[in-house]
Amino acid sequence: MAANPMVYKWLSALMCYPEADLIEALPEFQTALNEWPELSAHKAGLQALLDHLGSRSLRELQEDYVLVFDRTRQHALYIFEHVYGEDRDRGSAMVDLLEEYRRHGFELGDEELPDYLPALLEFFAHIPAEEAEKLLGDAVHVINHIGKNLTTYGSPYAALLQAAVALSPVAPQPLTEPPVRDMDEAMETFGPDVQGLEPLLKPSVQTVQFYPNGRPA
């Protein structure tokens, strides 16, 4: 049986940078956790996350989130960061994934990248269940990799990644560390973006790949 698409939205919202409206909605998240069978296997860990979010000030939560996800590369919620690093293939993969969004009629905001896991999970909630499961099965190896890193770090957010992995029809396989390329070389290849910071993305193939050569390393 396909997962309730709202589960993807539930995971996505809790995976985002905490804001006041998220904290205000915690009772609704609690109700869903108590009622949805798709979350039952990881209920203890997910409950610990809800308790974490409900027992600290918003400032503390935001500082913790930045420390965990923005300052620690191993925890980054950008799928291709763990696959390609700064390799030039990352740009092609970004464009391919953007095309997948657009094929279903979705456009991301100017500041959003298509491989941002909360955005991807939100996308899964709005497309046919079989397509969501296929894309999740492609990405599950990376999601599991991030989840393991968060578990080692001791972050309660690890439960969200573990729950997402449990929704996949594909068993996760281990990843190796992605290649690291010199940013100057990447800039020469792709050119700077409008802010002069990151390489521009340029299209190549039309198949979404969450790991090089279509398989986990």
From TrEMBL:
<dbReference type="GO" id="GO:0051082">
    <property type="term" value="F:unfolded protein binding"/>
</dbReference>
<dbReference type="InterPro" id="IPR020945">
    <property type="entry name" value="DMSO/NO3_reduct_chaperone"/>
</dbReference>
<protein>
    <submittedName>
        <fullName>Redox enzyme maturation protein NarJ</fullName>
    </submittedName>
</protein>
<dbReference type="InterPro" id="IPR036411">
    <property type="entry name" value="TorD-like_sf"/>
</dbReference>
<dbReference type="Pfam" id="PF02613">
    <property type="entry name" value="Nitrate_red_del"/>
</dbReference>
<dbReference type="GO" id="GO:0051131">
    <property type="term" value="P:chaperone-mediated protein complex assembly"/>
</dbReference>
<dbReference type="GO" id="GO:0042128">
    <property type="term" value="P:nitrate assimilation"/>
</dbReference>
<keyword id="KW-0534">Nitrate assimilation</keyword>
<dbReference type="InterPro" id="IPR003765">
    <property type="entry name" value="NO3_reductase_chaperone_NarJ"/>
</dbReference>
<dbReference type="GO" id="GO:0016530">
    <property type="term" value="F:metallochaperone activity"/>
</dbReference>
